[in-house]
Design goal:
The complex is a heterodimer of chains A (584) and B (579). Chain A is an alpha/beta fold and 584 residues long. Helices cover 64% and strands 10% of the residues of chain A. Chain B has a six-stranded mixed beta sheet, with helices on both faces. In chain B, strands 2-1-4-5 form a four-stranded antiparallel beta sheet, covered by helices on one side. Classes of the chains: A alpha/beta (584), B alpha/beta (579). The complex binds adenosine-5'-triphosphate (ATP) (2 copies) and magnesium ion (2 copies). One adenosine-5'-triphosphate sits at the interface of chains B and A.
Chain lengths: 584, 579
């Protein structure tokens, strides 16, 4: 049960809820024991001669009063204990989500969306269940067992009690055995539920592709397989789970047989009375229920343990923040250039370096373009600048200051970033643009949109800025998505703009307008743009050409052409003919 | 905050009178198994009931009576054996029941999933994926308890109840009737509970779907969130939804916390009433005390199944709320329901004809206006135009992702609405503007598990798409997993795989929607040669912003604000572009 240590903090905070809850529960258990006694009184009073009606009425009212008390305490324990479990559910979900938010992109490369979603719902649910009803059952079980055993030993015959309880250790041992494999099977179930969620979630994201290639049947089969695997994992679970109740009854019946044979002999030999014999059997049947409850507790607890362990493994993931004491204030030397100094970087599990021994400078206040064939490492350069990943060798410097001496938040607050595949949230257009500056005024939002040359188009959309877009921006055209992402990066005028292929979905005239707009941002803004387009490159102050992660050339468009840099000319040759056309 | 209203809010759930019937319909194929499980349940229950009877025999015949002790041992052992067999049956019953429950859920799940595949894109545009995922996963899961924890037990409990009622009536009719006056009260309690709990459960399921939706989007957009330092803002929004979920949860808990003890209280009232009137009858000599005693026991027994049922009632309510959501989804109309008499499509030639097509995503917001376009078989046509002009929308009509509002679109002279939808899409191949890769190997992403290719064929096709060389550098070449959405590849590499894919599928009509936007000029140049070969004699529509790409076409059309114009030469195009 070490798994639950993660929640220690929670239990400490809510211990009174649990303590009081258990007290209400014990009160219910206790009051319940009174009812049979009172029924006995009632019987005696009823059969007595002469009958005292007043007494009878009195007993009856007492029974009713106790019933009301039971109902009230029942209400209370439910509220306290089950309520605590629901608070726990919320707490754990918040905590896990918060943690997930801090995890670096490398974590998300290893983990699938659907499976993480399953953790946030299904697993947390299982943990909640293990800490709600099962606590109630546990308390019940302990209380009733104690009572039953106590009465067996004290009121009847201790020898008979000892004999009758012989099966109990065996039951405990078999519970122990079963619960271990139950744990593993629960783990299997939760895992395959994760896989199921993952399949569904991926399919829904792929729906346009699925339809375009008429893959519906392929996908149905794929889903049928994961769904069947989930079903099978449940079947495996039932094989073990199914043993619990029969086992309890089995050991119960052994006790019963022992009591019948030996107890019967004791009665005949006059050691105990028939009444004792009957009472003893009563206690024995009383034991059956807490044992059943124990079975349920184990079941809940093992499921909860398995899920808790799955959640723990996520909570154990390191968040990206580096350990060293980073600089929290923006250094005075803000006019400094950015330097890549001898950077080598390889992604986890890749066979080749994505960047090798790469050194170049991004001059402050200028537009630097970065180009190269597909897969040459442009996006990786952006990722390193964003500090999504840490290079294995070399460092990035801001002037003389290694970038990782700045606190991550401070550095990122200076960046405006446009990912290559833009990412639009299912929200209003205004909210998407003011994503990083939720307090931005409508004027600022429109200004950013105008810089990205999308203002007019937004105004033309039904709903304008308040138009709500679909998940990942599906209700916008490709170029609209890209420019809204660009506006998002531009809002707040960050000193560093990292634009990863910002014009791939934009037509040339629009692109020219945007670049002119960006020029107007002036010398306070350092811009890094990756692009495949000559028109874009031509307008940059400096071009960095990458080839398989190495620096192939650097310089302005004209310089590079003059020098006849092969790596660059090859990337331009085809697009240059259109310039000729333009010039004609 | 205006954040949450984008999606068509979930339709208010109408009470579906057929809900239970529909739920039972899924159990129908398994009625044999369920019946068997029920029979086994009763067998086991009767064994348990036999235990007191055995005790009676022991006392009457052996302890008090003349029976031999050795006989007693034999009796005990016989009972032990019979009982053990009963327990084996119990084990079987449990497995049978639970498995059947899972099977039923599996059927439902598959139906929901299959239905999702057939929903029109316009539905998808307005309903977040997380909501639909929740239907397939969590909602279906909740339903499973309905079949395992409720259905069989319900029958068993009703059976026991009937038994007790019959016995009570036979024992003493007036007292029995007196006891039964509580049945209407129990019913009223249940009805009140249902009325109160149902909205809470609905709300709970709705919030769960929102949690899932938000989490999914958050995970997908994590890089943007982190780059813009929005972790806290996003967390606060998530916590807000989580809080609403919690409130619904708490409400449901409170309602149940009142309901359950209320049922107990009813039982105690019944008991007290019985004691009062029964006691009076005993005193009047109308009934012997034994009868009253038996009735006290029976009241206990009578309420036990009732309590069982009510304890499970929250499960039942929760399942109902999930079922509503599931069946509501299943009731969504499919995209172009297959009408009988759909024309099968043989290998098409590729004559495309748009005639006066008008199209809007939302009522009168025209995206395409009066577009007419004829493409002859084998012709290569490029479509240029500013962003947001409607290029993607235009081709999305051709493969029936959306349906035109007016005008007609014909393929080889046949109205596309009358063609088999899947067949049409198989023949009209498209490389979409947003690239999607599955979290699978390179090979699976190229063949989509729908085409079988030999090693040589794969090599040939990757070579001609220009993806061969980078695939060779991957750790396991074609068998390298590409990560979620192909995230371990560069964007250009992903696009090359999408292009490879269409060469593998080799459809009769090619549509390339900005299919080379992420390629560098050198890669594109090499690709164009093989594409030119592949497109030779094949109808092709090329959408591009880049002139170098447009160059591949025989003819260039210009789309601006939903209107199409024909251009004769590049000079014209350049003029247009410079506008
Ligand atoms: N699913 C949708 N629902 C509602 N509106 C949409 C949807 N998809 C696109 N639109 C709108 O329709 C118009 C045309 O979009 P479309 O994607 O066809 O443009 P496009 O010419 O392909 O542009 P781009 O070059 O930027 O890709 C845009 O204004 C867009 O916002
Ligand atoms: N997460 C990853 N794991 C392993 N390899 C990766 C990962 N991401 C990228 N790579 C590899 O690193 C190399 C550089 O990728 P990067 O995305 O930086 O290229 P790029 O220059 O941006 O290309 P493009 O022009 O296509 O966008 C590629 O070979 C790619 O396959
Ligand atoms: Mg890139
Ligand atoms: Mg488009």
């Amino acid at each position: 049960m070490r798994e639950y240590l993660t929640l220690l903090d929670f239990f400490r905070r809510h211990r009174w809820r649990y303590i009081l809850g258990v007290m209400w529960l014990l009160a219910v258990d206790f009051l319940q024991m009174l009812i049979p006694r009172l029924l006995g009184f009632f019987t005696d009073q009823l059969l007595a001669t002469p009958v005292n009606i007043g007494q009878l009425r009195h007993t009856l009212l007492l029974i009713l009063a106790i019933a009301v008390g039971i109902a009230f305490f029942r209400y209370l324990w439910r509220l306290y204990i089950m309520g605590a479990a629901r608070i726990l559910e919320k707490y754990l979900r918040d905590r896990l989500f918060k943690h997930l938010q801090q995890l670096p992109p490398s974590f998300y490369l290893r983990n699938k969306t659907g499976e993480l979603m399953a953790h946030l719902t299904n697993d947390i649910n299982a943990v909640r269940n293990s800490l709600g009803l099962s606590i109630v059952l546990l308390v019940d079980a302990v209380f009733l067992t104690a009572m039953a055993v106590f009465f067996m030993f004290t009121t009847v015959d201790y020898r008979l009690a000892l004999l009758a309880l012989i099966p109990l250790p065996f039951l405990a041992v078999s519970f122990q055995q079963l619960s271990q494999s139950l744990y593993h099977r629960f783990l299997g179930v939760q895992e395959s539920f994760g896989a199921l969620t993952e399949t569904a979630q991926e399919n829904l994201n792929a729906l346009r592709l699925v339809k375009a290639f008429a893959l519906e049947d392929v996908e149905k089969n794929r889903f049928a397989r994961t769904a069947a695997a989930y079903m099978e994992s449940n079947f495996r679970l039932y094989k073990i789970w199914g043993f619990y109740n029969p086992l309890i009854l089995f050991f119960g019946i052994i006790s019963f047989i022992i009591v019948v044979i030996f107890g019967g002999r004791l009665v005949i030999e006059g050691e105990i009375s028939i009444g004792d014999f009957v009472a003893f059997n009563g206690y024995l049947t009383l034991l059956a229920w807490p044992m059943m409850a124990a079975g349920w507790v184990i079941n809940f607890a093992q499921r909860g343990r398995a899920s808790m362990e799955r959640i723990n493994s996520l909570l154990r993931e390191e968040t990206g923040e580096p350990a060293k004491e980073p600089c929290q204030t923006w250094p005075a030397s803000t006019k400094d250039d950015l330097h890549f100094s001898n950077i080598t970087f390889r992604y986890d599990g890749a066979r080749i370096d994505s960047l090798s021994e790469l050194s170049f400078t991004i001059p402050r206040g200028q537009i630097t373009a970065i180009t190269g064939q597909i897969g040459s490492g442009k996006t990786t350069v952006f990722y390193l600048l964003l500090r999504f990943f840490t290079p294995q060798q070399g460092e990035i410097l801001l002037g003389n200051l290694p970038l990782d001496h700045l606190s991550l938040n401070l550095w990122r607050s200076k960046l405006g970033y446009l990912p290559q595949d833009g990412f639009i949230f299912a929200d209003s257009i205004a909210a998407n643009i003011s994503f990083a500056h939720t307090e931005a005024s409508q004027y600022e939002i429109e200004e950013a949109a105008s810089l990205a040359a999308i203002h007019k188009e937004i105004m033309a959309l039904p709903g304008g800025y308040e138009a709500q877009v679909g998940e990942r921006g599906v209700t916008l055209s490709g170029g609209q998505q890209q420019r809204i992402s660009l506006a998002r990066a531009l809002l707040g005028r960050p000193p560093f703009l990292l634009l990863d292929d910002p014009f791939s979905a934009v037509d040339v005239p629009t692109e020219e307008r945007i670049i002119a707009n960006m020029r107007s941002l002036g010398k306070d803004t350092t811009i890094l743009i990756s692009s495949h387009r000559v028109q874009t490159l031509k307008r940059a102050d400096k071009i960095i050409v990458l080839d398989k992660g190495r620096l192939a050339a650097a310089g302005s468009h004209d310089e590079l052409l003059q020098r006849g840099e092969e790596s660059y000319v090859r990337l331009c040759r085809q697009q240059l003919w259109q310039e000729k056309l333009e010039e004609d | 905050m205006h954040g949450h209203h984008y999606f068509h809010d979930e339709k208010p759930l109408k009470p579906d009178p057929r809900l239970l019937r529909r739920m039972f319909a899924y159990a129908r194929p398994y009625r044999g198994a369920l019946l068997l499980a029920l029979i086994l349940t009763m067998l086991v229950a009767s064994l348990q009931l036999a235990q007191p009877y055995i005790l009676k025999i022991v006392i009457d015949d052996y302890i008090l009576g003349p029976g031999e002790l050795s006989e007693l041992t034999r009796l005990a052992i016989t009972f032990f054996i019979v009982y053990s067999v009963g327990l084996a049956l119990y084990y079987l019953q449990f497995n049978l029941l639970m498995r059947t429950g899972q099977r039923i859920i599996n059927d439902i799940r598959r139906d929901v999933f299959a239905h999702l595949q057939e929903l029109p894109l316009s539905y998808m545009d307005h309903n977040p994926a997380g909501r639909m995922i929740t239907r397939v996963t969590n909602d279906a899961e909740t339903l499973s308890e309905m079949y395992t924890g409720f259905l069989v037990d319900l029958f068993r409990d009703l059976f026991i109840l009937t038994g007790i009622i019959v016995v009570m009536l036979q024992l003493h009719t007036p007292l029995a009737l007196l006891t039964f006056t509580f049945i209407p009260l129990v019913c009223v309690a249940i009805i009140i509970y249902r009325r109160k709990a149902q909205p809470a459960f609905r709300e709970l399921r709705r919030q769960l779907a929102r949690l899932n939706t938000f989490a999914a989007e958050n995970i997908a957009g994590i890089r943007v969130i982190q780059a813009f330092l929005q972790e806290n803002n996003r967390f606060n929004r998530f916590a807000g939804i989580n809080e609403e979920h919690f409130q619904a949860n708490l409400l449901e808990l409170k309602i149940f916390a009142v309901f359950r003890p209320a049922m107990d209280l009813l039982r105690s009232l019944a008991l007290a009433m019985l004691l009062w009137f029964g006691g009076a009858s005993v005193l009047a000599g109308a009934i012997p005390f034994g009868v009253l005693f038996a009735f006290i026991n029976y009241v206990e027994q009578f309420f036990r199944p009732l309590n069982d049922i009510s304890e499970r009632f929250s499960i039942f309510q929760s399942a109902l709320a999930s079922a509503e959501r599931i069946f509501q989804l299943l009731d969504e109309p499919k995209e172009g329901e297959t009408v009988p008499g759909k024309k099968p499509l043989h290998k098409i030639r590729g004559d495309i004809d748009f005639e006066r097509v008008w199209f809007a995503y939302e009522d009168e917001e025209w995206v395409l206006q009066d577009v007419s376009l004829q493409i002859k078989a084998g012709e290569k046509v490029a479509i240029a135009g500013p962003t947001g002009a409607g290029k993607t929308s235009l081709v999305n009509l051709l493969n029936r992702f959306y349906t035109a509002n007016r005008g007609s679109i014909r393929l080889d002279g046949l109205e596309i609405g009358e063609l088999d939808r899947q067949e049409l899409r198989r023949q009209v191949g498209i490389v979409q503007q947003d690239i999607f890769l599955f979290n699978a190997t390179v090979r699976e992403n190229i063949t989509l598990n729908a085409v079988n290719l030999s090693k040589d064929e794969l090599e040939a096709v990757t070579r001609s798409a220009g993806s061969y060389s980078f695939i060779q550098e991957l750790p396991q070449k074609l068998d390298t997993p590409v990560g979620e959405r192909g995230f371990t590849l560069s964007t250009g590499q992903r696009q090359l795989l999408a292009l490879t894919r269409i060469l593998v599928f080799n459809p009769a009509v090619f549509i390339l929607d900005e299919a080379t936007a992420h390629l560098d000029a050198h890669t594109e140049e090499m690709l164009q040669q093989s594409m030119a070969r592949a497109m030779h004699g094949r109808t092709s529509i090329i959408i591009a912003h880049r002139l170098s790409t447009l160059k591949m076409a025989d003819r260039i059309l210009f789309l601006r604000q939903g209107k199409l114009t024909q251009l004769d030469n590049f000079e014209h195009l350049l003029e247009e572009l410079q506008l």
